[in-house]
Design a protein that fits this description.
3 helices, 13% strand, GH, glycosidase, hydrolase
């Protein structure tokens, strides 16, 4: 069913988040995969975040949620508007630090988005 991605129930592992939804995917992989996805980039207005959908080689439906410069900048602006002390990210080393021109541009845009 489109736009529905079921998650299995997993036991609580003593952390505030869980890997039940899947594994972390490097930003470079996301940027390459989104172009060949079923959906292209979709936007969730409630979460203020992009995602896309694809089917794997077995026909299993997947959704990939991620942040991009637009979603990061919205979060950074929210932090600033509320007078909060800062913003952080989960894993900056998931960006693409290769010397490819597109990768350099994407990585630079992500870092710049942290400063509203």
């Amino acid at each position: 069913q489109d736009h529905v991605c079921s998650l299995p129930k997993v036991p609580f592992r003593g952390a505030p988040c869980s890997d039940a939804a899947g594994r972390q995917v490097p930003y470079a992989t996301i940027m390459k995969q989104v172009n060949s996805s079923l959906s292209g980039v979709l936007w969730d207005e409630v979460q203020k975040a992009p995602f896309y959908e694809y089917k794997d080689s077995l026909g299993q439906f997947h959704q990939v949620w991620f942040d991009d410069p637009h979603s990061i900048s919205l979060k950074a602006a929210y932090v600033k508007s509320r007078g909060l002390r800062g913003i952080g990210m989960w894993n900056g080393n998931s960006l693409d630090y290769s010397r490819e021109a597109a990768a350099e541009q994407q990585t630079q845009a992500m870092w710049q988005a942290l400063t509203p």
